[in-house]
Amino acid sequence: MEIIVTGGNSGVGEATAAALAADGHSVVIACRTIPKAERAAAAMSGDVAVAHLDLADLSSVRKFADSVKSVDVLINNAGVLGLPLTRTADGFESHMGINYLGHFALTCLLGDRIRNRVISVVSAAYAMSHLHIDDLNWHHRTYSKWAAYGESKLAVMLFNHSLVRRSVRAYMTDPGATNTDITRDATGVVPWIRDHTFRGWPAHGAQAGARASIQAVTTELPNGTYLAPRFSQWGKPKVTTPRKKARDAAMARRLWDVSVELTGCDWPV
Fold first, then answer.
1. CB of 5 within 8 A of CB of 28?
2. For range 247-257, the mean pLDDT
3. Domain ranges across the chain
4. Which regions span the lipid bilayer (predicted)?
5. Which residues in 109-140 are b (16+ Cβ under 10 Å) and which e?
6. Is the pLDDT of residue 189 over 70?
């Protein structure tokens, strides 16, 4: 199969891309930093290509989407965590803009060329979050990078719900507590936690964190299934029931409408 992995040049995305390429799939690593992607691709076996995609810039998202003739599986993996209040090229708060709105736009733009399924990488942080639909981009609230991250992942889960309702084959995967460099741009106490605890116990490696996404590529589980490790943190992926707020049909519809307005993208009819 032909598979696109966003953020496939590091961490869970890199481990996912490497495993799928080794299994005989044709993989495209779509990411912002090409030299890093080229180094990652060179270490992989199989059919691996590299393409530029900056989810923080909708013009880049559109350019990348225009270059794709078709794809079997889109894995929306790229993400950021722990950023101070910063904004994307289109004025979105960075967690919401990169983790969710960029992927919303990409998925919609590729909608008529996705032959099999969409896989979205989420996080247990959604469970502690409340989506402020009237202020997705933090113009009227006191900023919290933790809340911003959690809300972006809750938005992804609601987006997945909407895709399923549109009869799109879509799955959610959670890597759990994983030792990666997703916090590389974080500020405050995050770097200390990363360097003193997160790099070791109890986090597992990127290969373990990639298991859910790899499984989702070929699974025959019911559409919309959420695969997460035990307690959404450790162990092998298993079918997990999302909390009610991640399955709220009314909120999912509202979020879709707002996302279309913000990005100018919608699912093709």
1. yes
2. 98
3. 2-262
4. none
5. bbbeebeebbbbbbbbbbeebebeeeebbbee
6. no
- The set of long-range contacts for 42-51, using a CB threshold of 8 Å and a minimum separation of 24, is 43/18, 44/17, 44/18, 45/18, 45/21, 46/21, 46/22, 47/21, 48/17, 48/21, 50/9
Q: State the DSSP code for 112.
A: G
Domain 2-262: CATH architecture, name and number where available: 3-Layer(aba) Sandwich (3.40)
Is residue 59 classed exposed, middle or buried when 0-12, 13-18 and 19+ CB atoms within 10 A define those classes? exposed
Per-residue confidence at 63, pLDDT binned at 50, 70, 90?
Answer: very high
Q: Do the beta carbons of residue 108 and residue 264 sit within 8 Å?
A: no
Q: Which is the catalytic residue, given 126, 149, 171, 226?
A: 149
Rounded distance between C-alpha atoms, residue 73 and residue 120, angstroms: 11
Mean pLDDT score, 234-260: 93
Strands (E), the chain: 2-6, 26-31, 48-52, 71-76, 114-121, 170-173, 226-230, 234-240
The residue with tokens 């009237």 is: 134
The phi, psi pair for 52, rounded to 5°, reads -80, 130
- Rounded Cα distance between 158 and 137, Å, is 17
Judge whether 149 counts as a catalytic residue. Answer: yes
Q: Are 101 and 262 in contact (CB under 8 A)?
A: yes
* Residue 190 scores a pLDDT above 60: no
What residues contact 9, with CB distance under 8 A and at least 6 apart? 29, 31, 33, 36, 37, 39, 40, 41, 50
Using the structure block, give the residue that is written with the tokens 């933090």: 138
How does DSSP classify residue 222? P
Q: The pTM is what?
A: 0.90
